[in-house]
Request: fold
Amino acid sequence: MPQILVDHSAGLDFDRAALAAEVHQAVTEVIDTTVADCKTLFRTAAHHRAGDGTTGEGVVLVEVKILAGRTTEQRAELTARVLGAVRARIAGPAAIGVQVTELDRDTYRFVHHPGH
Reply:
C-alpha cells in the first residue's frame, strides 16, 4: 500500500532502483507492510529553483503515503530513514525534503487493474 513519490531535478544523477529498494525495506521495518505492497514513482522536474537560484542545488522532494493509524514516532522514524537514504544516494548539492503523510482508511482505495 505505501506509495512513495520522488520529485527531483532533472540534473541529479542517482540510482533510482537502489533508492526505491532501500526505502521499501525501511517502510517494512517501520510499519506493518511488505516490500511487495510498496510502490515508488520517480518524477523528473524539467525546471527547479532552490532559494534565490545561486546555490546550484538540485531539489529532491519525497512524499511517503501510508494508511492512517501509525504513531508520531513511527512516522518520524520513517521520515528520518528515508531522508538518510536520499542523502546517501545524491552526490551533488541538493535541497531535500521528506514528508510522511497519512491516507484516510475510510476513503482510500487501491486496486491492481488487469487491463482490458
User: Anything to note?
Assistant: The two ends are 23 Å apart (CA to CA). The beta strands are 3-9, 39-45, 58-67, 94-103. The chain is about 30% helix and 30% strand.
